[in-house]
Amino acid sequence: ITFKGMTHNVCYCNGRNLSYIPDVNAETQILDFSFNYLPSLNQSFFPQLLDLKHLDLTRCQIHHIDENAFQHVRGIATLILTGNPIAYTSNSTFSELHQLQRLVLVDTGLFSIADVRMCHMTNLQELNVGTNRLLSISIPACFSKFKDFRKLDLHANNISVIRRDHTAVLGRMQNNITIILSRNPILHIETGAFRNIYLQELELRNAFVSCNASKDGLKALVGLTVEKLVLGRYYGDRASRVDDVHGSLAGLCLINFKEINLRQKEWTGRILPLFDCMSNATKVTINQGRTSFMESIQLRKTKELIITKSDIRVMPTEQLSHHHTLEKLTITESKNPIVFDYGFCDMPSLKYVDVSNNQLVTKKSWQLLFQETPNIQYLNMSFNSEANFDFKGLQGFRNLEVLDFHRTKISCVREYVDMTDLNRLQYLDLSYTGSTFTHPLSFQGLGNLRVLKMSSSLFLGDVLKHLFVNLTQLEMLDVSFSSIEHLPLESFGNLKQLTQLIASGNKLMSVDFLTNPSLLSLIRLDAAENHISAIPDNVLRNLPKTLQTLDISFNPVDCSCSQASFIVWIQNHKNIMKNWHDTYCRSDSTSTKPRVHDFDSEYCTHVVTGKILGSIFAVVFLLAASALVYKFQFHCFVLLKGYTTSQQTECHYDAFVIYSSKDESWVTGELVENLEKGVGRSITSSIIEDGIMGSRKVIVVVSRHFVDSTWCRFEFEIAQSWQLLGGGSNIIIIMLEDVEKEMSRRVFGLHRYLRRNTYLEWKDNPISKVRFWTRLRKAVISKTET
């Protein structure tokens, strides 16, 4: 059996209702056999897979695991047995797994960790026994010898009591262990059960049956030292009212922690003293804080404060001011509009401020709000639609590197703004701020700017020609959805470092600016949703050699044969065409638009070929028609003139001879000698007027030379035309020699004339000659048609 998900080192056989391991590569390192049917595992179940490192047997309905069942996969580092109702394992079931580092036994009906023989797993780093029936956090004493053990996950069990003897082994283990006790119905923790225990992280979300149990449990953690403490509720839990405001978090004062993450779902009508016991933490995260106003905050060692989804209504500038250790402040996604009328004061260490998504309400300029934070480097005030900041007075922010006003109203940048103090600024986002640019030096002083976003801005006049002239280090420029009709070539004169240009959603009709030699580093151009119908060949030939992504999707591409080369270019460069399947041809239909990908370029090849051949045929036809018309007019002129003359004068000759010059010896030596006893005058210069029209008969001497002679064929056609119009000149055919039928067809009317009329044949013998001359003289003298 070969599976679609099978590669050289990975095999995905999950969800196929298999009861056996299919043939897999002996070098397979990852085998996902989850959601199949394996009631029992024995020694011969697995093939020899000594390179296997990851084995997933999630929910395979395993009830029975024999001893040494994993002997053929003894090198695995991760074993997942989640969701299997394991009823039997022997003492040596896992005895071969000396290299195991991660064991997952979630939802296996386990009653005690000791039921799984793991003392030989000396390399074990993580044990996940969540969602079982454990009553205790006790772990085997041999775990104290596991030098690399890092994580014990006991979530969603039945642990209700934690005593000192339960944690005795933890006290002898290394100091960087993470223990997860969330979603356990803890009623009681013996005081001092975690004394002198050092943990990397302790997670206690939804770990107590009541608020009182939580209050007592936190106090019982006295003496615990932990790097990160996670408390509170999960996101979807219902909020509960707290009556004992001061005692709910009092136990935190007895725990030594450096970082705390609290999702507060408890609420009260009074101010909740959240920070009373957090003053020594270096990082404090409060999620979903259920208080509208914050009390006085004393954060003596805190370097990072994060408050998200809270109920605060006033920016806590007064409470946070004068904190000299605070370096990073994040207050985002407030549920209510936040009044921000007073600035932060005396915060010399503050470098990072994120107050985005808060519906800020203020009458102050942002410069005044942060004027006493001289070392600020990152300022994010995006998504505050109710605020309206001006963009003046930028002095004093010499260390600012990131400034984000995305979707926050700012006063239009209509005048020159001095940004010389922002010479360290690397990221500036003014997109969707309602900004209008009229001055070409608006960004003067931003020589180190790397990213500039200006979506949905307004550019008046020809300001774009020189607006970016000073941004020599710019790497990314976004001017999308700004109603730009033309990007001048001069706009990119100094942008030699530009790698990304986003100009989608505008009214551009061309991308000629790509030919600017300064765009030698451009990797990505997004010109989607513009009015581009084609890109000329000279632009395509001069695209930046570094270009890797070009997006012209949702443009009205001209799919006519006049742009066939451009269409073929698109089809041949799908590797760089982003969203090429969304590149459509221009169409008057609003329901269906053909895709450029479906355009048949061969059709245009046939059309072009047809046009060329048609043009050649037309030229040839016109030339031939002109010749025929000229010839017809000439014939008509000659015949009409001859017809008029014949009505007025008598014929001068009895016969006019048509012959090839190569048969002249026979004509003069035989024909003329016997008919006239003397040679007539040469009438080459007056064949028509003095020859055919002036003779009663036309003698045609037919030979191979006659057939090959263009002049002879012309004279014969004239004679036929004259006879057709009733002008006389009966035709006498003399076959000087045998002429094949195919050769006779080369002279217009000759073959048909020979079939319908009699003719004379020349034979070089005395009897035939006598008969020949007798008949010829009779034909020449006769006045009737021969």
From TrEMBL:
Residues 651-780 form the TIR domain. Pfam families: LRR_8 (PF13855), TIR (PF01582). Its main location: membrane. It comes from the Eukaryota. Keywords: Cell membrane, Cell projection, Endosome, Glycoprotein, Immunity, Inflammatory response, Innate immunity, Leucine-rich repeat, Membrane, Receptor, Repeat, Signal, Transmembrane, Transmembrane helix, Ubl conjugation. GO terms for molecular function: lipopolysaccharide binding; lipopolysaccharide immune receptor activity; transmembrane signaling receptor activity. Coiled coil: none annotated. It is found in: Cell membrane; Cell projection, Ruffle; Early endosome. PROSITE patterns: TIR. GO terms for biological process: defense response to Gram-negative bacterium; detection of lipopolysaccharide; inflammatory response; innate immune response; MyD88-dependent toll-like receptor signaling pathway; toll-like receptor 4 signaling pathway. The keyword Transmembrane helix applies. GO terms for cellular component: early endosome; lipopolysaccharide receptor complex; plasma membrane; ruffle. It is a single-pass type I membrane protein. The keyword 4Fe-4S does not apply. InterPro entries: Leu-rich_rpt, Leu-rich_rpt_typical-subtyp, LRR_dom_sf, TIR_dom, Toll-like_receptor, Toll_tir_struct_dom_sf. Belongs to the Toll-like receptor family. This is Toll-like receptor 4. It comes from Myripristis murdjan (pinecone soldierfish).
